[in-house]
Design brief:
Ribosomal Protein S8, Chain: A, domain 1; 3-stranded antiparallel sheet; Multidrug-efflux Transporter Regulator, Chain: A, Domain 2; 41% helix
Amino acid sequence: MEQDLYSVEQVASLLNLHVKTVRNYVREGRLRAVRIGKQYRISGDDLAAMTGRPAASFRPEPVRRERHIEVSSIVEIDAVSPETANRLMMLGLNIGSGLRVETIYDARRAHMKIILVGSMESNAHCFKFVSMVLESEK
């Protein structure tokens, strides 16, 4: 059988009380505790006896994690005409599926930067689109 021991601070947090209140409960005998060194430890069973709640209700919920993958990509393209840059900038307005797109075009240098943040699939889809646009310009 697993025995849960809580510090005064943990009990105060669990019961939404001030730490001094919990210490007073222990000193008054309203809450049973064991002194280990200079600190009190309260068992889950004693906490349950005082509150009338089952001991298991004080155990933290297990952390549930779902895998989330996000990819950040920066695509830099040289020798980009203003027309091609405009077509690629429209990409940022028309793409969906949670992909965030930022485009920067420097007409003086004919240089474009595309910043993508989203899933691997949406980034790959965007790469294909950029490649098709650039291939059609040749």
